[in-house]
Amino acid sequence: MGAQACRQICKRSTEGGDALDRPVHRDFGASELGETDPTACTLRIVQITDVYMLDNFPSLRTLIQEKRAELAERNGGKTISMLTGDFLAPYLLSSLDKGVGMMNMLNGTPIDYLTWGNHEDDIPHLDVIKREREYTGTWINTNMTTHESFKDSKCQVEYAIIEVKSYDGSNRRKIGMIGVLSASPSLYKPNAFGGAKIEDPWETMAKFKAKLEQEHGCDVVVPLCHLYEPQDERTCREFDFPVILSGHDHHVVDRVVEGTRLLKAGSDAVKAVVLDLSWASAESARKPEVDAEILNVADWPADPVLQKTAEQAYSILEPLKKTQLARVPDKYRPLTSVGARGNRVSMGTYMLSRIRDALNMEAPIEGPFNCDCALLKGGNVRGGRDYGEDENITLEVLQSELEETKEIIIIPVPGSVLRVGLKETFGAPNPGWMQYDDGVELDADDYVVSIGGKPLDLEKKYRVASISDFYRKRDAPSIGAYFEEHPDELPEPDSGVPMHALLMRLFALSMWNRIWKALDKHGKGEIDMEVFSSLDEDGDGKLSRADLKKAITRIAGFEVFDGEEPEELEGSADIVINQMINEVTSFKRETSA
Hints:
Blueprint: H1 3-14, E1 24-27, E2 41-48, H2 57-74, E3 76-84, H3 92-97, H4 100-108, E4 113-115, H5 125-134, E5 138-140, E6 156-157, E7 159-165, E8 172-181, H6 201-215, E9 220-226, H7 229-238, E10 243-246, E11 252-257, E12 260-265, E13 271-279, E14 289-296, H8 304-314, E15 324-326, H9 346-359, E16 373-377, E17 393-394, H10 395-401, E18 407-414, H11 415-421, E19 434-436, E20 440-442, E21 448-451, E22 454-455, E23 461-466, H12 477-485, E24 497-498, H13 499-519, H14 529-535, H15 545-554, H16 572-592
Helix pairs in contact: 4-8, 9-13, 11-12, 13-16
Protein backbone atom coordinates (compact mmCIF):
# COMPACT_ATOMS: atom_id res chain seq x y z
CA MET A 1 0.00 0.00 0.00
CA GLY A 2 1.47 3.35 -1.06
CA ALA A 3 1.27 6.68 0.68
CA GLN A 4 -1.55 7.84 -1.64
CA ALA A 5 -3.65 4.78 -0.82
CA CYS A 6 -3.08 5.35 2.91
CA ARG A 7 -4.15 8.95 2.42
CA GLN A 8 -7.40 7.83 0.75
CA ILE A 9 -8.16 5.54 3.67
CA CYS A 10 -7.62 8.48 6.01
CA LYS A 11 -9.88 10.69 3.89
CA ARG A 12 -12.65 8.07 3.87
CA SER A 13 -12.49 7.76 7.64
CA THR A 14 -12.85 11.53 8.08
CA GLU A 15 -15.40 12.17 5.33
CA GLY A 16 -18.35 10.07 6.37
CA GLY A 17 -16.78 6.61 6.54
CA ASP A 18 -17.32 4.15 9.38
CA ALA A 19 -17.29 6.32 12.50
CA LEU A 20 -16.48 3.34 14.70
CA ASP A 21 -13.13 2.95 12.92
CA ARG A 22 -11.92 6.49 13.61
CA PRO A 23 -9.59 7.20 16.54
CA VAL A 24 -11.07 9.07 19.49
CA HIS A 25 -8.67 11.69 20.86
CA ARG A 26 -8.92 12.59 24.53
CA ASP A 27 -6.88 14.05 27.34
CA PHE A 28 -6.47 12.08 30.55
CA GLY A 29 -9.45 12.39 32.81
CA ALA A 30 -11.91 12.14 29.93
CA SER A 31 -11.68 8.37 29.47
CA GLU A 32 -14.93 6.43 29.70
CA LEU A 33 -13.12 3.22 30.57
CA GLY A 34 -13.81 1.96 34.06
CA GLU A 35 -11.09 1.99 36.67
CA THR A 36 -11.07 -1.84 36.84
CA ASP A 37 -12.79 -2.79 33.58
CA PRO A 38 -12.12 -6.53 32.97
CA THR A 39 -12.83 -6.29 29.23
CA ALA A 40 -10.60 -3.27 28.47
CA CYS A 41 -6.96 -3.35 27.43
CA THR A 42 -4.40 -0.58 27.03
CA LEU A 43 -0.89 0.03 25.79
CA ARG A 44 0.66 2.90 27.75
CA ILE A 45 3.73 4.59 26.24
CA VAL A 46 6.01 6.98 28.13
CA GLN A 47 8.02 8.88 25.51
CA ILE A 48 10.98 11.24 25.68
CA THR A 49 13.18 12.46 22.84
CA ASP A 50 16.34 14.43 21.99
CA VAL A 51 18.13 13.98 25.32
CA TYR A 52 21.55 15.61 25.77
CA MET A 53 21.85 15.43 29.55
CA LEU A 54 21.50 12.77 32.25
CA ASP A 55 19.87 14.89 34.92
CA ASN A 56 16.22 13.93 34.46
CA PHE A 57 16.46 10.15 34.13
CA PRO A 58 16.28 9.48 37.92
CA SER A 59 12.91 11.28 38.13
CA LEU A 60 11.77 9.70 34.87
CA ARG A 61 12.39 6.25 36.36
CA THR A 62 10.04 7.07 39.24
CA LEU A 63 7.42 8.47 36.84
CA ILE A 64 7.49 5.31 34.70
CA GLN A 65 7.16 3.06 37.74
CA GLU A 66 4.18 5.05 39.01
CA LYS A 67 2.43 5.10 35.63
CA ARG A 68 2.98 1.36 35.18
CA ALA A 69 1.46 0.61 38.58
CA GLU A 70 -1.45 2.97 37.87
CA LEU A 71 -2.33 1.15 34.63
CA ALA A 72 -1.98 -2.26 36.25
CA GLU A 73 -4.70 -1.30 38.74
CA ARG A 74 -7.04 -0.01 36.02
CA ASN A 75 -7.22 -2.72 33.35
CA GLY A 76 -5.24 -5.23 31.38
CA GLY A 77 -2.36 -3.83 29.40
CA LYS A 78 1.32 -2.95 29.29
CA THR A 79 3.47 0.12 29.96
CA ILE A 80 6.58 0.74 27.89
CA SER A 81 9.10 3.57 27.68
CA MET A 82 10.88 4.94 24.62
CA LEU A 83 13.29 7.58 23.36
CA THR A 84 12.80 8.64 19.73
CA GLY A 85 16.33 9.56 18.66
CA ASP A 86 19.29 11.80 19.63
CA PHE A 87 20.91 10.62 22.85
CA LEU A 88 24.53 9.61 22.16
CA ALA A 89 25.50 13.15 21.11
CA PRO A 90 26.14 16.05 20.89
CA TYR A 91 27.01 17.29 24.37
CA LEU A 92 30.16 17.83 26.40
CA LEU A 93 30.00 14.57 28.37
CA SER A 94 29.62 12.43 25.26
CA SER A 95 32.57 14.18 23.63
CA LEU A 96 34.65 12.60 26.41
CA ASP A 97 32.92 9.31 27.26
CA LYS A 98 31.43 8.63 23.79
CA GLY A 99 27.97 7.94 25.19
CA VAL A 100 28.90 5.48 27.95
CA GLY A 101 27.15 7.49 30.66
CA MET A 102 24.01 7.91 28.56
CA MET A 103 23.78 4.20 27.79
CA ASN A 104 24.11 3.40 31.50
CA MET A 105 21.17 5.72 32.17
CA LEU A 106 19.06 4.25 29.37
CA ASN A 107 19.62 0.72 30.66
CA GLY A 108 19.15 1.79 34.27
CA THR A 109 15.86 3.63 33.83
CA PRO A 110 15.19 1.44 31.78
CA ILE A 111 14.17 2.86 28.40
CA ASP A 112 12.55 -0.10 26.65
CA TYR A 113 12.68 1.15 23.06
CA LEU A 114 15.06 3.39 21.11
CA THR A 115 15.10 4.76 17.58
CA TRP A 116 17.93 6.40 15.65
CA GLY A 117 18.40 10.16 15.52
CA ASN A 118 20.68 12.17 13.26
CA HIS A 119 23.04 13.07 16.12
CA GLU A 120 23.91 9.43 16.79
CA ASP A 121 26.40 10.01 13.97
CA ASP A 122 28.20 12.72 15.97
CA ILE A 123 30.48 10.35 17.86
CA PRO A 124 32.95 8.04 16.10
CA HIS A 125 31.32 5.15 14.23
CA LEU A 126 33.12 2.44 16.23
CA ASP A 127 31.90 4.01 19.47
CA VAL A 128 28.34 3.96 18.12
CA ILE A 129 28.79 0.24 17.44
CA LYS A 130 29.99 -0.30 21.03
CA ARG A 131 27.07 1.60 22.55
CA GLU A 132 24.58 -0.31 20.40
CA ARG A 133 25.97 -3.58 21.73
CA GLU A 134 25.58 -2.37 25.32
CA TYR A 135 21.89 -1.51 25.01
CA THR A 136 19.60 -4.03 26.73
CA GLY A 137 16.25 -2.94 25.27
CA THR A 138 14.79 -3.01 21.74
CA TRP A 139 16.17 -0.60 19.14
CA ILE A 140 13.69 -0.09 16.29
CA ASN A 141 15.43 0.66 12.99
CA THR A 142 13.08 0.65 10.02
CA ASN A 143 14.75 2.89 7.44
CA MET A 144 18.51 2.45 8.04
CA THR A 145 18.96 -1.33 8.10
CA THR A 146 22.22 -1.10 6.13
CA HIS A 147 23.90 0.29 9.26
CA GLU A 148 26.88 -1.90 10.14
CA SER A 149 25.44 -2.69 13.57
CA PHE A 150 22.12 -4.05 12.26
CA LYS A 151 23.04 -7.38 10.70
CA ASP A 152 24.22 -9.20 13.82
CA SER A 153 22.49 -6.98 16.36
CA LYS A 154 20.97 -8.42 19.51
CA CYS A 155 18.77 -5.36 20.06
CA GLN A 156 17.85 -3.88 16.66
CA VAL A 157 14.70 -4.86 14.77
CA GLU A 158 12.94 -3.46 11.70
CA TYR A 159 9.68 -3.21 13.64
CA ALA A 160 8.19 -4.32 16.94
CA ILE A 161 4.80 -5.83 17.73
CA ILE A 162 3.34 -5.59 21.21
CA GLU A 163 0.33 -7.64 22.26
CA VAL A 164 -1.99 -6.51 25.04
CA LYS A 165 -5.03 -8.25 26.50
CA SER A 166 -7.79 -7.54 28.97
CA TYR A 167 -7.99 -9.04 32.44
CA ASP A 168 -10.63 -11.55 31.33
CA GLY A 169 -8.71 -12.44 28.17
CA SER A 170 -11.61 -11.59 25.88
CA ASN A 171 -9.98 -8.52 24.31
CA ARG A 172 -6.61 -9.00 22.61
CA ARG A 173 -4.88 -6.37 20.49
CA LYS A 174 -1.67 -6.03 18.48
CA ILE A 175 0.21 -2.75 18.19
CA GLY A 176 2.95 -2.42 15.59
CA MET A 177 5.75 0.13 15.96
CA ILE A 178 8.16 1.41 13.31
CA GLY A 179 11.08 3.82 13.72
CA VAL A 180 12.22 6.27 11.04
CA LEU A 181 14.75 9.10 11.01
CA SER A 182 15.22 11.96 8.59
CA ALA A 183 16.95 11.26 5.28
CA SER A 184 17.65 14.96 4.63
CA PRO A 185 21.20 15.14 3.17
CA SER A 186 21.93 18.54 4.72
CA LEU A 187 21.83 16.98 8.20
CA TYR A 188 24.74 14.66 7.60
CA LYS A 189 28.45 14.66 6.88
CA PRO A 190 29.83 12.54 4.03
CA ASN A 191 29.90 8.84 4.92
CA ALA A 192 27.44 9.39 7.78
CA PHE A 193 26.65 6.34 9.90
CA GLY A 194 29.57 4.49 8.34
CA GLY A 195 28.10 4.87 4.87
CA ALA A 196 24.67 3.43 5.70
CA LYS A 197 21.78 4.37 3.42
CA ILE A 198 18.79 6.07 5.02
CA GLU A 199 15.64 5.13 3.12
CA ASP A 200 12.86 7.62 2.41
CA PRO A 201 10.76 7.88 5.61
CA TRP A 202 7.38 8.04 3.88
CA GLU A 203 8.02 5.17 1.48
CA THR A 204 9.24 3.16 4.46
CA MET A 205 6.16 3.98 6.53
CA ALA A 206 3.82 3.00 3.68
CA LYS A 207 5.61 -0.32 3.20
CA PHE A 208 5.72 -1.33 6.84
CA LYS A 209 2.25 -0.05 7.72
CA ALA A 210 0.82 -2.38 5.09
CA LYS A 211 3.06 -5.24 6.23
CA LEU A 212 2.12 -4.93 9.89
CA GLU A 213 -1.60 -4.54 9.25
CA GLN A 214 -2.03 -7.09 6.46
CA GLU A 215 0.58 -9.75 7.26
CA HIS A 216 0.75 -9.51 11.05
CA GLY A 217 -2.82 -8.47 11.85
CA CYS A 218 -1.90 -5.38 13.86
CA ASP A 219 -4.88 -3.34 15.02
CA VAL A 220 -2.84 -0.16 14.82
CA VAL A 221 0.62 0.97 13.73
CA VAL A 222 2.43 3.71 15.65
CA PRO A 223 5.25 5.52 13.81
CA LEU A 224 8.15 6.63 15.99
CA CYS A 225 9.74 9.47 14.05
CA HIS A 226 12.79 11.70 14.16
CA LEU A 227 11.44 14.35 11.80
CA TYR A 228 10.66 18.07 11.94
CA GLU A 229 7.11 19.14 12.69
CA PRO A 230 6.29 20.12 9.06
CA GLN A 231 7.48 16.67 7.98
CA ASP A 232 5.27 15.08 10.63
CA GLU A 233 2.37 17.13 9.31
CA ARG A 234 2.98 15.54 5.92
CA THR A 235 2.77 12.12 7.57
CA CYS A 236 -0.52 13.13 9.19
CA ARG A 237 -1.92 14.20 5.81
CA GLU A 238 -0.78 11.17 3.83
CA PHE A 239 -1.60 8.38 6.27
CA ASP A 240 -4.37 7.40 8.65
CA PHE A 241 -2.21 6.83 11.74
CA PRO A 242 -4.22 7.57 14.91
CA VAL A 243 -1.12 8.97 16.61
CA ILE A 244 2.50 9.86 15.81
CA LEU A 245 5.28 10.06 18.42
CA SER A 246 8.14 12.18 17.15
CA GLY A 247 11.17 14.29 18.02
CA HIS A 248 13.95 16.26 16.31
CA ASP A 249 12.53 19.81 16.84
CA HIS A 250 13.28 20.09 20.59
CA HIS A 251 9.94 21.77 21.34
CA VAL A 252 6.74 20.33 22.79
CA VAL A 253 3.90 19.51 20.37
CA ASP A 254 0.38 18.22 21.08
CA ARG A 255 -1.90 18.76 18.08
CA VAL A 256 -4.46 16.93 15.99
CA VAL A 257 -3.67 17.22 12.27
CA GLU A 258 -6.30 15.81 9.88
CA GLY A 259 -7.40 13.26 12.45
CA THR A 260 -3.92 12.26 13.67
CA ARG A 261 -2.65 13.16 17.15
CA LEU A 262 0.92 14.50 16.80
CA LEU A 263 2.95 14.36 20.01
CA LYS A 264 6.49 15.53 20.78
CA ALA A 265 7.91 15.64 24.30
CA GLY A 266 10.52 18.36 23.71
CA SER A 267 14.17 17.89 24.59
CA ASP A 268 16.24 16.61 27.53
CA ALA A 269 13.45 14.65 29.26
CA VAL A 270 12.26 17.85 30.93
CA LYS A 271 8.82 16.66 29.89
CA ALA A 272 7.47 13.23 28.98
CA VAL A 273 4.50 12.21 26.87
CA VAL A 274 2.27 9.62 28.51
CA LEU A 275 0.10 8.06 25.81
CA ASP A 276 -2.65 5.47 26.25
CA LEU A 277 -4.00 3.44 23.32
CA SER A 278 -7.13 1.71 24.66
CA TRP A 279 -9.88 -0.62 23.50
CA ALA A 280 -12.96 -0.92 25.72
CA SER A 281 -13.91 -4.46 24.63
CA ALA A 282 -13.40 -7.10 21.97
CA GLU A 283 -16.23 -5.48 20.00
CA SER A 284 -14.43 -2.12 19.81
CA ALA A 285 -13.14 -0.96 16.43
CA ARG A 286 -9.53 -1.58 15.51
CA LYS A 287 -8.67 2.09 15.93
CA PRO A 288 -8.04 2.79 19.62
CA GLU A 289 -9.15 5.50 21.96
CA VAL A 290 -6.16 7.87 22.18
CA ASP A 291 -5.52 9.51 25.56
CA ALA A 292 -2.40 11.63 26.15
CA GLU A 293 -0.86 14.08 28.57
CA ILE A 294 2.53 15.79 28.73
CA LEU A 295 4.05 15.82 32.21
CA ASN A 296 6.86 17.71 33.96
CA VAL A 297 9.35 14.98 34.82
CA ALA A 298 10.83 16.91 37.75
CA ASP A 299 7.49 16.62 39.56
CA TRP A 300 8.49 13.04 40.45
CA PRO A 301 11.20 12.32 43.06
CA ALA A 302 14.56 11.14 41.77
CA ASP A 303 15.43 7.47 42.10
CA PRO A 304 18.49 7.50 44.43
CA VAL A 305 20.31 4.60 42.76
CA LEU A 306 20.00 6.10 39.28
CA GLN A 307 20.96 9.50 40.68
CA LYS A 308 24.28 8.02 41.80
CA THR A 309 24.78 6.52 38.35
CA ALA A 310 24.35 9.97 36.82
CA GLU A 311 26.74 11.56 39.31
CA GLN A 312 29.36 8.92 38.55
CA ALA A 313 29.04 9.57 34.82
CA TYR A 314 29.48 13.32 35.28
CA SER A 315 32.46 12.84 37.60
CA ILE A 316 34.72 12.57 34.54
CA LEU A 317 34.28 16.33 34.09
CA GLU A 318 35.38 17.32 37.60
CA PRO A 319 39.18 16.99 37.16
CA LEU A 320 38.98 19.04 33.96
CA LYS A 321 37.43 22.10 35.57
CA LYS A 322 40.82 23.48 36.58
CA THR A 323 42.91 21.53 34.08
CA GLN A 324 44.49 23.46 31.25
CA LEU A 325 42.87 22.49 27.96
CA ALA A 326 44.52 25.08 25.73
CA ARG A 327 47.17 27.80 25.95
CA VAL A 328 46.13 31.29 24.90
CA PRO A 329 48.70 32.86 22.51
CA ASP A 330 50.14 36.26 23.36
CA LYS A 331 48.31 38.00 20.52
CA TYR A 332 45.03 37.61 22.44
CA ARG A 333 46.41 39.14 25.62
CA PRO A 334 45.49 40.91 27.74
CA LEU A 335 42.68 38.35 27.82
CA THR A 336 39.29 39.73 28.82
CA SER A 337 35.57 39.26 28.32
CA VAL A 338 34.59 42.48 30.10
CA GLY A 339 32.22 44.65 28.05
CA ALA A 340 31.39 42.08 25.36
CA ARG A 341 28.04 43.79 24.73
CA GLY A 342 29.67 47.02 23.62
CA ASN A 343 33.26 46.35 22.52
CA ARG A 344 35.37 43.78 20.78
CA VAL A 345 36.86 41.64 23.55
CA SER A 346 39.90 39.40 23.23
CA MET A 347 38.16 36.36 24.76
CA GLY A 348 35.47 36.63 22.10
CA THR A 349 38.11 36.90 19.37
CA TYR A 350 40.03 33.91 20.74
CA MET A 351 36.97 31.65 21.15
CA LEU A 352 35.53 32.51 17.74
CA SER A 353 38.89 31.93 16.04
CA ARG A 354 39.08 28.51 17.67
CA ILE A 355 35.48 27.68 16.69
CA ARG A 356 36.36 28.54 13.09
CA ASP A 357 39.49 26.37 13.27
CA ALA A 358 37.56 23.47 14.80
CA LEU A 359 35.05 23.50 11.97
CA ASN A 360 37.88 23.46 9.43
CA MET A 361 39.83 20.59 10.98
CA GLU A 362 38.54 18.08 8.44
CA ALA A 363 38.58 20.41 5.42
CA PRO A 364 41.15 19.70 2.67
CA ILE A 365 44.33 21.76 3.00
CA GLU A 366 43.73 23.21 -0.45
CA GLY A 367 40.14 24.06 0.49
CA PRO A 368 37.36 24.85 0.37
CA PHE A 369 36.92 25.47 4.08
CA ASN A 370 33.81 24.41 5.95
CA CYS A 371 33.79 27.80 7.68
CA ASP A 372 34.99 31.19 6.42
CA CYS A 373 34.47 33.12 9.64
CA ALA A 374 32.83 32.89 13.05
CA LEU A 375 30.56 35.59 14.50
CA LEU A 376 28.71 35.68 17.80
CA LYS A 377 26.54 38.26 19.49
CA GLY A 378 28.25 39.71 22.54
CA GLY A 379 25.56 38.59 24.96
CA ASN A 380 26.82 35.04 24.40
CA VAL A 381 30.35 35.88 25.65
CA ARG A 382 29.25 36.04 29.23
CA GLY A 383 32.22 35.64 31.59
CA GLY A 384 32.66 39.37 32.22
CA ARG A 385 36.15 39.11 33.71
CA ASP A 386 39.79 39.99 33.15
CA TYR A 387 42.28 37.10 33.09
CA GLY A 388 45.80 37.01 34.46
CA GLU A 389 48.81 36.63 32.19
CA ASP A 390 49.27 33.04 33.38
CA GLU A 391 45.62 32.02 33.01
CA ASN A 392 44.67 29.76 30.12
CA ILE A 393 41.58 27.84 29.00
CA THR A 394 40.15 25.30 31.43
CA LEU A 395 36.75 23.66 31.44
CA GLU A 396 35.73 26.09 34.17
CA VAL A 397 36.66 29.04 31.91
CA LEU A 398 34.87 27.46 28.97
CA GLN A 399 31.70 26.95 30.99
CA SER A 400 31.76 30.49 32.36
CA GLU A 401 32.29 32.14 28.96
CA LEU A 402 30.13 30.08 26.55
CA GLU A 403 26.87 28.33 27.31
CA GLU A 404 27.19 24.59 26.77
CA THR A 405 23.74 24.19 25.20
CA LYS A 406 24.38 26.72 22.41
CA GLU A 407 24.96 24.94 19.10
CA ILE A 408 27.15 26.21 16.29
CA ILE A 409 25.58 26.13 12.82
CA ILE A 410 26.97 27.14 9.42
CA ILE A 411 24.96 29.92 7.79
CA PRO A 412 25.45 31.07 4.16
CA VAL A 413 25.63 34.89 4.13
CA PRO A 414 26.34 37.12 1.10
CA GLY A 415 29.37 39.39 1.37
CA SER A 416 27.14 42.40 0.70
CA VAL A 417 25.12 41.58 3.82
CA LEU A 418 28.19 40.94 5.97
CA ARG A 419 29.74 44.23 4.91
CA VAL A 420 27.09 46.24 6.75
CA GLY A 421 25.72 43.56 9.08
CA LEU A 422 28.30 43.88 11.83
CA LYS A 423 28.32 47.69 11.81
CA GLU A 424 24.55 47.74 12.41
CA THR A 425 25.03 46.01 15.77
CA PHE A 426 27.60 48.53 17.04
CA GLY A 427 25.39 51.61 17.66
CA ALA A 428 25.20 51.23 21.43
CA PRO A 429 25.99 48.55 24.03
CA ASN A 430 23.48 45.73 23.56
CA PRO A 431 23.32 41.92 23.68
CA GLY A 432 23.50 41.79 19.87
CA TRP A 433 26.89 43.58 19.58
CA MET A 434 28.72 41.26 17.17
CA GLN A 435 32.02 39.69 18.19
CA TYR A 436 34.16 38.31 15.36
CA ASP A 437 37.20 36.09 14.79
CA ASP A 438 40.76 37.18 14.07
CA GLY A 439 40.37 36.72 10.32
CA VAL A 440 37.67 39.39 9.97
CA GLU A 441 38.95 42.89 9.25
CA LEU A 442 36.93 46.11 9.54
CA ASP A 443 37.78 49.55 8.22
CA ALA A 444 37.71 52.79 10.23
CA ASP A 445 33.96 53.06 9.66
CA ASP A 446 33.29 49.51 10.90
CA TYR A 447 32.48 48.03 7.49
CA VAL A 448 33.85 44.52 6.84
CA VAL A 449 36.61 44.76 4.24
CA SER A 450 38.29 41.34 4.37
CA ILE A 451 37.69 37.80 5.60
CA GLY A 452 40.37 35.17 5.97
CA GLY A 453 43.06 37.49 4.65
CA LYS A 454 41.25 38.16 1.36
CA PRO A 455 39.27 41.24 0.30
CA LEU A 456 35.54 40.92 0.89
CA ASP A 457 33.69 39.61 -2.18
CA LEU A 458 30.24 41.22 -2.17
CA GLU A 459 28.81 38.46 -4.40
CA LYS A 460 30.24 35.50 -2.51
CA LYS A 461 28.20 33.42 -0.06
CA TYR A 462 30.37 33.15 3.04
CA ARG A 463 30.04 30.17 5.39
CA VAL A 464 29.52 31.88 8.74
CA ALA A 465 29.65 29.96 12.01
CA SER A 466 27.25 31.26 14.64
CA ILE A 467 24.18 30.26 16.64
CA SER A 468 20.48 30.57 15.86
CA ASP A 469 20.13 34.13 17.20
CA PHE A 470 22.50 35.37 14.45
CA TYR A 471 19.64 36.22 12.09
CA ARG A 472 17.44 37.91 14.73
CA LYS A 473 16.36 41.06 12.92
CA ARG A 474 16.10 43.45 15.85
CA ASP A 475 19.83 43.09 16.52
CA ALA A 476 21.10 42.98 12.94
CA PRO A 477 18.50 44.45 10.54
CA SER A 478 20.24 43.65 7.24
CA ILE A 479 21.10 40.10 8.26
CA GLY A 480 17.58 39.49 9.59
CA ALA A 481 15.93 41.02 6.51
CA TYR A 482 18.01 38.85 4.17
CA PHE A 483 16.83 35.64 5.83
CA GLU A 484 13.24 36.84 5.98
CA GLU A 485 13.46 37.09 2.18
CA HIS A 486 15.46 33.85 1.80
CA PRO A 487 14.23 31.47 4.55
CA ASP A 488 15.14 28.49 2.37
CA GLU A 489 18.83 29.33 2.89
CA LEU A 490 18.68 28.87 6.66
CA PRO A 491 20.50 25.76 7.86
CA GLU A 492 18.71 22.71 9.24
CA PRO A 493 17.65 23.59 12.82
CA ASP A 494 19.11 20.35 14.18
CA SER A 495 22.39 20.49 12.24
CA GLY A 496 24.38 22.26 14.96
CA VAL A 497 27.21 21.13 17.23
CA PRO A 498 27.46 22.32 20.87
CA MET A 499 30.28 24.80 21.38
CA HIS A 500 31.97 22.94 24.21
CA ALA A 501 32.06 19.59 22.41
CA LEU A 502 33.41 21.27 19.28
CA LEU A 503 36.18 23.09 21.15
CA MET A 504 37.14 20.07 23.24
CA ARG A 505 37.87 18.17 20.06
CA LEU A 506 40.01 20.98 18.72
CA PHE A 507 41.95 21.26 21.99
CA ALA A 508 42.73 17.52 21.96
CA LEU A 509 43.97 17.60 18.37
CA SER A 510 45.93 20.79 19.06
CA MET A 511 47.94 18.95 21.71
CA TRP A 512 48.85 16.34 19.11
CA ASN A 513 49.85 19.11 16.76
CA ARG A 514 52.28 20.56 19.29
CA ILE A 515 53.80 17.14 19.92
CA TRP A 516 54.15 16.43 16.20
CA LYS A 517 55.82 19.80 15.65
CA ALA A 518 58.31 19.01 18.42
CA LEU A 519 59.08 15.62 16.85
CA ASP A 520 59.60 17.30 13.45
CA LYS A 521 62.42 19.39 14.94
CA HIS A 522 63.79 20.65 11.62
CA GLY A 523 60.47 21.16 9.86
CA LYS A 524 61.20 18.58 7.14
CA GLY A 525 58.19 16.35 7.76
CA GLU A 526 60.44 13.78 9.46
CA ILE A 527 60.55 12.55 13.06
CA ASP A 528 63.74 13.58 14.82
CA MET A 529 64.84 10.40 16.59
CA GLU A 530 66.69 12.31 19.30
CA VAL A 531 63.48 14.08 20.30
CA PHE A 532 61.51 10.84 19.99
CA SER A 533 63.98 9.00 22.25
CA SER A 534 63.69 11.73 24.87
CA LEU A 535 59.94 11.06 25.03
CA ASP A 536 60.16 7.26 24.77
CA GLU A 537 61.43 6.73 28.29
CA ASP A 538 61.14 2.94 28.31
CA GLY A 539 62.94 2.68 24.97
CA ASP A 540 60.41 0.34 23.36
CA GLY A 541 60.13 2.41 20.18
CA LYS A 542 56.56 3.47 20.93
CA LEU A 543 54.93 6.41 22.69
CA SER A 544 52.91 4.79 25.46
CA ARG A 545 50.23 6.51 27.52
CA ALA A 546 52.82 7.16 30.21
CA ASP A 547 55.11 8.73 27.60
CA LEU A 548 52.27 10.89 26.29
CA LYS A 549 51.43 12.12 29.80
CA LYS A 550 54.96 13.44 30.11
CA ALA A 551 54.92 14.82 26.56
CA ILE A 552 51.79 16.93 27.07
CA THR A 553 53.41 18.50 30.11
CA ARG A 554 56.87 19.06 28.63
CA ILE A 555 55.90 19.98 25.07
CA ALA A 556 52.26 21.06 25.02
CA GLY A 557 52.50 23.08 28.23
CA PHE A 558 49.74 21.06 29.89
CA GLU A 559 49.04 21.85 33.54
CA VAL A 560 46.76 20.21 36.10
CA PHE A 561 45.32 21.66 39.26
CA ASP A 562 47.14 21.11 42.51
CA GLY A 563 44.31 19.55 44.48
CA GLU A 564 44.45 15.86 45.35
CA GLU A 565 42.32 13.83 42.97
CA PRO A 566 39.66 11.40 44.29
CA GLU A 567 40.83 7.79 44.14
CA GLU A 568 37.80 6.68 42.17
CA LEU A 569 38.48 9.10 39.31
CA GLU A 570 41.02 8.95 36.53
CA GLY A 571 43.62 11.67 36.77
CA SER A 572 43.23 14.79 34.70
CA ALA A 573 46.09 13.83 32.42
CA ASP A 574 44.60 10.38 31.82
CA ILE A 575 41.30 11.92 30.75
CA VAL A 576 43.06 14.28 28.37
CA ILE A 577 45.15 11.42 26.93
CA ASN A 578 42.00 9.34 26.38
CA GLN A 579 40.42 12.29 24.58
CA MET A 580 43.53 12.80 22.44
CA ILE A 581 43.64 9.13 21.40
CA ASN A 582 39.89 9.02 20.70
CA GLU A 583 40.00 12.15 18.59
CA VAL A 584 43.09 11.33 16.56
CA THR A 585 41.64 7.86 15.83
CA SER A 586 38.33 9.38 14.78
CA PHE A 587 40.07 12.09 12.74
CA LYS A 588 42.13 9.49 10.86
CA ARG A 589 39.02 7.44 10.00
CA GLU A 590 37.02 10.46 8.85
CA THR A 591 39.72 11.99 6.67
CA SER A 592 40.52 8.65 5.02
CA ALA A 593 36.85 7.78 4.38
